[in-house]
Design brief:
The chain has 19 helices and 22 strands. By secondary structure, it is α+β, with helices and mostly antiparallel strands. A hairpin with a 5-residue loop joins strand 21 and strand 22. The model has no long low-confidence stretch (mean pLDDT 95). It binds flavin-adenine dinucleotide. The site of flavin-adenine dinucleotide has 43 residues, from helix 1, helix 2, strand 7, helix 9 and helix 19.
Length: 558
Amino acid sequence: MDADVIVVGAGLAGLVAAHELTSRGRKVALVDQENAANLGGQAYWSFGGLFLVDSPEQRRLGVKDSFDLAWSDWQGSAGFDRTEDEDSWAVRWARAYVEFAAGEKRSWLAGHGISLLPTVGWAERGDLRAGGHGNSVPRFHIAWGTGTGVVAPFADHARQAARDGLLTFHPPATAWTSWWSRNGTARGVRGTLLAPDDSPRGVASNRDAVGEFELTAQAVIVTSGGIGADHDIVRRYWPERLGTPPARMVTGVPAYVDGRMLDISAEAGVRLVNRDRMWHYTEGIQNWNPVWPGHGIRILPGPSSIWLDALGRRLPEPCLPGYDTLSTLRHLRTTEDIAPYDHSWFVLTRKIIEKEFALSGSEQNPDITAKDGKAVLRDRLFGKGAPGPVRDFVRHGADFVVADTLERLVEKMNKLTDAPPLDAAGIRRQIEARDLQLDNSYSKDAQVQGIHNARRYIGDRLGRVAAPHRVLDPAAGPLIGVKLHILTRKTLGGIQTDLDSRALGLDGRPVEGLYAAGEVAGFGGGGVHGYNALEGTFLGGCLFSGRAAGRAAAAQTA
Ligand SMILES: Cc1cc2nc3c(=O)[nH]c(=O)nc-3n(C[C@H](O)[C@H](O)[C@H](O)COP(=O)(O)OP(=O)(O)OC[C@H]3O[C@@H](n4cnc5c(N)ncnc54)[C@H](O)[C@@H]3O)c2cc1C
């Protein structure tokens, strides 16, 4: 045997599983198709948003949260409707995960040295129904150090375990891998050795085969991530309920998030479920300074930008900025006259961008990633203007235009698209009607109501939601137009697993010795989120399911 357990995929889920194993003295072979510079996978690039329930951070900000409220939100968002079949384990994972988020998660993170910013964001505000999709309260906690800081303790532990002889980065070059079984029991992995590649982290690496390899162990844990970099796979599983897939999308994940292992596992007899459930964003912008092919960045918007479709009409509620990701995607892709176009627009003011634009990604938040408290205070709390990375996008980004008048702005927006020209007069009418709603502290406009509502939460009022103002007020300007693309990110379905992260076969029974965790397992159970996510739940899903896989495999190999 080459190891007690082989872990395929050195992202967060794989590192957490490896941590559980090596802490219990098990020998681990860690296999990845990327070089060691990429340790931590997507999580390294992530914003570090973490879903927690009834935390001290929430309480300090006056947020009243509870397991009951979070579980109600989760069920309303998930809409589990395959409970006898594809959702049978997902529902159990969901409940266990919300219990984790409302209980042990925070102290477990602290035990690994991961701390949180004092502010709590309100992501996925929802579809405006008490029992529907969305977070009733702010729950998006940001790790100090962003996703880079979440990965760090597990990556450090892996390096230490390697020095202690408990973990081997296998093979010395990178490898494309498939697991194999004997008599129905997973016993190892085999694959293709790839030529050495010293590309920096995140940059697409070679796929030149230079040989074959095989490793044996008592158990295999698959933590190979999702599908977001392969647009063909995204389109293949794109569900009819979301209309037609866009012809052009930007890519929110590195090239190695290629989804290959899902098909490999299906061919080997593992049960894949809920592949039609995905999580792609509608506020993607082209990165002016790309790391991976087609690199897109997601704007995490506050609620005030005017959102227009490709023909210049305001989107209907609940398709408001930061409210309901998949309702917005569905609206854009199923409305007949706009579905042929792959974009929509934000129109906003300088005042809005200064307070409300956050960019997802560790490299877009260098102050938090570097744990530089002074820079955070200087740039975000006391600083004037938008944070530096946002300013860079306004200056260099291909999707941004700036102008002093709406007519000039629309002229510039029209130069960014082949769609029928936007009509400045029509857009002016809609914005003027919206601006007239601002004279009172109440309104009949759902978006304006949402702005007032958000500002009753101190976290939003201080740091996230601009004071209500007329978009056409020159003092709030200049005006900014942003062309938004669909950005691919996550699969919500995957390998079906039981609560010990044991992968299930086509007969619904565990495949002996085989485990799956993280995104490849739909973050647990083959689809813990159901149809919709509450955000900040993906990193946590890797931690929770990776931990379960590591513990169960350690028990099996005792
Ligand atoms: C920019 C960005 C921002 C994000 N922000 C957040 C956030 O704020 N909060 C949140 O909860 N989530 C966020 N996410 C999502 C989250 O980071 C990912 O869903 C999660 O990290 C996935 O981890 P994983 O371990 O399952 O897979 P991955 O990180 O994708 O790791 C899988 C690894 O397996 C390897 N691999 C794949 N196939 C093979 C094979 N056949 N052979 C060998 N190796 C293979 C890959 O090379 C990779 O290293 C963000 C993601 C991105 C990209």
